Amino acid sequence: MMKINRIKRRGWLNVALIASGLFALSQFGFANGFDTGVANKCKECHEKEVTNFTGDNTHFRAWGSRTDGKSYSCESCHGSGEKHMKDKSVESIIGFSAEKQSKRPAAERSAQCLTCHSTTSKELMFWTQGIHNRNDVSCASCHTMHGGSDKMKPSSETCFKCHKDVKSQVGKFSHHPIIEGKVGCNDCHNPHGTTGASNIRGDNVNQLCYKCHTDKRGPYLNGHAPVEENCMTCHKAHGSQHAMLLVERQPALCQNCHADAGHPSNPYDRRTKFGNNSPAGTPPYPTTVTAPLNGALVVSARLVGRGCTNCHGMIHGSNTPGTSGAYFVR
Ligand code: HEC
Ligand code: HEC
Ligand code: HEC
Ligand code: HEC
Ligand code: HEC
Ligand code: HEC
Ligand code: HEC
Ligand code: HEC
Ligand code: HEC
Ligand code: HEC
């Protein structure tokens, strides 16, 4: 009787699929692969978890649309409930709460998911070696399984639960538009693990940055060595109190390496050719200068409140031939 019903339904499903694939999937798909018999038994004691495992739930829909004769249920993730239904204990069932399941290692809980989401998938390839797995973070630390499909995808908020320091970084004056929702943690990190440091999506930091900031990739006729080496020498990844995500303000940023430029490296030194009116004297030089005629402060207008990149604007590299290109002036 059951069998005939199934075949009938499947035949009808095929017709419906031809008519409208999407409609068929969302409306009738669940009848096939999802074993509602098991769910009904659990429902006696776990009504909430059963009702929120229907409708728009990704697994419920995916399994329901299966027509391969295989059966999926609550037990696909929680393991057999036979003993548990009798003793009603936490030990007899695989749960995902880190506190209640403290005796069950995180890796064992994750293994439930990996039976299907094999670690040979591109995204999950380095899960086992990954820093989260090694630190007892399980799939369910980030992914919610009960509820609609919108709940399946972890957001930045999910990450902030544990990475509070990053939350404070992205709230700084200059930041990647993460809270604004234009860039997500997942765009730059593979939370499932990578072989390199910090779970970065790219062979190294620069390769990651080039993905979105393609203009910085070059190659340039005149490259700036630290730029080609590592963007992080001058920039913060998440946020900074200095404009343009800089690690430090100019000119200090540049002076870390250019203490002895051909022109004096400190433009705020009035004895340099950057001041309009260099005073005589020996160091330390005054930081402000009074003009001899009207008493006004004189500082090169090009330098007020600005930095080295006011002139060296092509700081990431230049394609202009000659000295101006070599000095990143144009
Ligand atoms: C007769 C009642 C009953 C039935 C039927 C039942 N459970 Fe439970 N289940 C419980 C009780 C009671 C707890 C809470 C144990 C505790 O917190 O001490 C529980 C806890 C759980 C937990 C939480 C474990 C954790 O670590 O947080 C899961 C998961 C679970 N049940 C799954 C199932 C599944 C799946 C089924 C159906 C196969 C099922 N239960 C059937 C009574 C039941
Ligand atoms: C019995 C097999 C099976 C098990 C067990 C399973 N999944 Fe899935 N999962 C699927 C299928 C099938 C889909 C539908 C999408 C697909 O084909 O990848 C899916 C979808 C997902 C998605 C959404 C992917 C997307 O692109 O939107 C996530 C996230 C996910 N599963 C995580 C988990 C986690 C976490 C666990 C363990 C708590 C788990 N799954 C257990 C089979 C399974
Ligand atoms: C540290 C948090 C975190 C952990 C732990 C985690 N995930 Fe994810 N997972 C994510 C994020 C973030 C996404 C991307 C969601 C999106 O598309 O916006 C994702 C996406 C996925 C997807 C869809 C991938 C695709 O191909 O598009 C699957 C499937 C998945 N995770 C399964 C798992 C499984 C299985 C585990 C445990 C072995 C796990 N995840 C552990 C955060 C996590
Ligand atoms: C795809 C894997 C998966 C399936 C299938 C699944 N669950 Fe869960 N279940 C989880 C995860 C992960 C959690 C932890 C909370 C969450 O992610 O929503 C959980 C939590 C629970 C809890 C404990 C709630 C708590 O916070 O203590 C119960 C009870 C439960 N599930 C019962 C069921 C029942 C009954 C079914 C069948 C209708 C079912 N689950 C199907 C993965 C699954
Ligand atoms: C624009 C790309 C980008 C985005 C978006 C991003 N990160 Fe990062 N993150 C990086 C880079 C690059 C590093 C490595 C920094 C280094 O090597 O100095 C890093 C490092 C980290 C680290 C380790 C070291 C540290 O600085 O604390 C954590 C944890 C981290 N990110 C979490 C997050 C979280 C959580 C989010 C989302 C709220 C996020 N990241 C968003 C690029 C990004
Ligand atoms: C349940 C807590 C938890 C959640 C949720 C979580 N993480 Fe982590 N994460 C950790 C722990 C623990 C480490 C190990 C290193 C440490 O202690 O910072 C880690 C490490 C990392 C690192 C590597 C840091 C390094 O120094 O190499 C990155 C990057 C990272 N997480 C990103 C994320 C992103 C992105 C998300 C959200 C998708 C996320 N994490 C969600 C707990 C968590
Ligand atoms: C996933 C895409 C993406 C990646 C990867 C990325 N960025 Fe960005 N970046 C953005 C977006 C979007 C903005 C904001 C642009 C805007 O608002 O016009 C931005 C802005 C910036 C800014 C200007 C910030 C400001 O205050 O105006 C700097 C500097 C920057 N990124 C550096 C980096 C560095 C360094 C890396 C590599 C660690 C990187 N970005 C990786 C997308 C990305
Ligand atoms: C030697 C220090 C230094 C290094 C290394 C560096 N930058 Fe910058 N970057 C700056 C400075 C300084 C500014 C601000 C320029 C200004 O204010 O005119 C800036 C601004 C930016 C901006 C925003 C303005 C724009 O030009 O689009 C982006 C995006 C950016 N950098 C990306 C990168 C990337 C990607 C890398 C690595 C390939 C990198 N930077 C390496 C110094 C550096
Ligand atoms: C981490 C060290 C470092 C930082 C920080 C740095 N530079 Fe450089 N810069 C170099 C190196 C190395 C060269 C190549 C020098 C050479 O080839 O002799 C270079 C070359 C230059 C040149 C080309 C002139 C020449 O001698 O080849 C200019 C101009 C320059 N940098 C300006 C700046 C400015 C402006 C800043 C700040 C926004 C800055 N640099 C930050 C290391 C740095
Ligand atoms: C008013 C414009 C201007 C400002 C501001 C400026 N420079 Fe220059 N800089 C130049 C020009 C023009 C040259 C090329 C000089 C030449 O042709 O001899 C140059 C040359 C250089 C050189 C290469 C020449 C050498 O002798 O090493 C370095 C390095 C340099 N500047 C670093 C800096 C740093 C660091 C700052 C900020 C502290 C800075 N500059 C501020 C205009 C400026």
Distance between the termini: 81 Å
Q: Beta fraction of the residues? A: under 5%
**Quaternary state of the chains:** single chain
Q: What sort of overall outline do the alpha carbons produce when their principal axes are compared? A: elongated
What is the averaged pLDDT score?
82
Can you offer a commentary on this structure?
- The chain is mainly α and 330 residues long.
- The protein has helices at residues 2-19, 21-28, 36-43, 47-51, 58-64, 75-78, 82-87, 106-114, 131-134, 139-142, 156-160, 164-170, 185-188, 205-212, 225-229, 252-255, 322-326, and strands spanning 174-175, 222-223, 239-240, 317-318.
- Among the domains are: 2-87, no CATH class; 106-199, no CATH class.
- It contains 17 helices and 4 strands.
- The strands form 2 sheets. A two-stranded antiparallel sheet has the order 1-3. A two-stranded antiparallel sheet has the order 2-4.
- One heme C is lined by residues 206, 209, 213, 216, 224, 226-227, 231, 233-235, 244, 246, 309, 315-316.
Please name the defining characteristics of this protein.
mainly alpha, single chain, elongated, binds heme C, about 325 residues, 4 strands, two-stranded antiparallel ribbon, about 0% strand, disordered N terminus, two-stranded antiparallel sheet
What is the gist of this entry?
By secondary structure, the chain is mostly helical. The chain has helices at 2-19, 21-28, 36-43, 47-51, 58-64, 75-78, 82-87, 106-114, 131-134, 139-142, 156-160, 164-170, 185-188, 205-212, 225-229, 252-255, 322-326, and strands at 174-175, 222-223, 239-240, 317-318. 34% of the residues lie in helices and 2% in strands.
